[in-house]
What we know:
This protein has helices spanning 5-54, 62-72, 106-114, 154-204, 219-254, 273-279, 290-293, 297-309, 349-390, 392-422, 436-453, 472-489, 535-541, 547-557, and strands at residues 75-79, 85-88, 116-122, 129-138, 141-152, 258-263, 268-271, 313-319, 323-334, 337-347, 432-434, 457-460, 468-470, 495-503, 506-513, 561-566, 572-579. By secondary structure, the chain is an alpha+beta fold. The chain folds into four domains: 6-159, Beta-Lactamase, CATH 3.30.450; 255-347, PAS domain (Beta-Lactamase); 351-422, Helix Hairpins, CATH 1.10.287.130; 432-579, Heat Shock Protein 90. A hairpin with a 3-residue loop joins strand 8 (313-319) and strand 9 (323-334). The radius of gyration is 64 Å and the shape is rod-shaped.
Amino acid sequence: MRFSIRWKLLATYLLVLLVMGGTLFVYLDRTLEQQLTENLRNSLYQEAELTVLFSDPASLSPALVREIAARTASRLSIIAADGTVLADSQVADVDLAAVENHLSRPEIAAALQNGRGSTVRHSATIGIDMLYAAVRLDPKTAKKGVLRLALPLQAVKEAQTSLRQSLILAFLLSGLLAGGLSLLLIQLFSNTLHNLSEGAKRFGSGDFRRKLSITGNDEISDLARVMNTMAESLNLQMANLEAQRNRLDTILRGMGEGLLVADRSGIVLLINPAFCSLFRVTADAVGQPLINLSRHPTLHETFRRVLTGRSEESGEFVLDGNTTLLTHWVPLLDNNELIGVVAVFHDISELKRLETIRRDFVANVSHELRTPVTVIRGYAETLGSGLISKDPATAERFANVIKNHAERLTSLISDLLTLSQLEVQGFTLTLAPCDLNERLQHCCELVKPKAEEKEISITISPLPPGKILADAQRLEQILFNLLDNAVKYTPNGGAVTINVSNEGELMRIAIDDTGPGVPEAAQQRIFERFYRADAGRSREEGGTGLGLAIAKHLVGLHGGSIGVTNRRKGGSSFFFTLHRAPSGS
């Protein structure tokens, strides 16, 4: 059972009051009994001495003795010096001879020796407790005997009982009054303690806005002041910690690198959103074993090496087959005691991809440049050896070959410059409503000679109403590259069809051919620079391998998308979408 401090204090006060009251009651009761007895003794001494003073001892007959006893409301006895009872107010004259000798009685012996004596004892004669007081009949000598007065102590006992009752009643009333006052004081004190307790609970829960009220200058008030000061200090520290935590959270959320903190047993203590994204886990992973997040062997081997060697580790590993991570592991020490590990994960997949693209680009450009340059050099050397004068017809054919390869170099360099220009950060297009039919007709005229050589028909299906929102020059570049690619791969006697349709706010332009189509495995890479589904045939056709890459960049700058599919009846369909111009423009 739990008792509040209010009842504990009340119980303490009542116990102290009970002990003090009981001690005082016992002391007063004993003191009162002694005082009453002493007063009664002195009164008996005075009455006895007055009786001796105003009476002749020789004339104290039994009748006079009884008269004096009646007047003093006491028992009067005359005892001779040898202890013989000469007269007794409560004993008949004929029975005096039978009364025992009183010489051994303490009050008689004391009176004979010292002039007076007193004692309290049970009277065998009348059967009650009596107070005896004896004085000499002659103060100067004991020879004449002793006069003794006696009173029953019943009156003393009754007075003592009455006073006891009064004391008990007084103590009860005082106890009730003191208990009530104590309860009131305790209530006030407990209210103060309750306010302190509530304030401490508020402080403990982090609410430092409401301070404790201070109404006095005692120890409780000092405690309240200390608690208010402590609350202000804690509030400041909590604010600083909150600010630091917010800064840390912001840093962790803003980090592009994944962060992991784990203890020595491999339990995850902290992860950031980037880590969750890399390993496809949620924030609930905190508190779980590291093995639950990933079972990659390199991850756990590196973790164990860092714990064992207490040194930093760096390395790379591939996650999920297509994500390459650069990791840096650092042991977490506290006073030189290893308590865990901190790991940072950098996703370098894009860097690896760009490195591969750069390497392939350099290799492709080198190859694309080396072939025409080698041809030009070889034919030029042949022409320089006197072929022009020896065989003019062959020399003219060689000159045409050099011209064709020079034009191919010019196209390659032009496309490379275009790509470089498009990839410059901040490059923008000037978008305006354009007549798509006009641009299509112009591009068809440009590829018409090549199409006629291969007897390929180019058809423009009916266009939906409205204009397209585009950069006119760049739109023609997209259309020309796709049409030129379609004519290039369509066999002799084939057909190229241009279909245009509206798709909500977009306009979809599809260029369908009757060529061999694009293998499904190549459709994801067909728009990469220098990529060719059929490398040998592409070079035979004289392409640079950059036309589709340029088209993809331009469509992206327009805010559209581009793709390719194979047609059921054969051939491929290259399509792209651009935004339609607002109506009425």
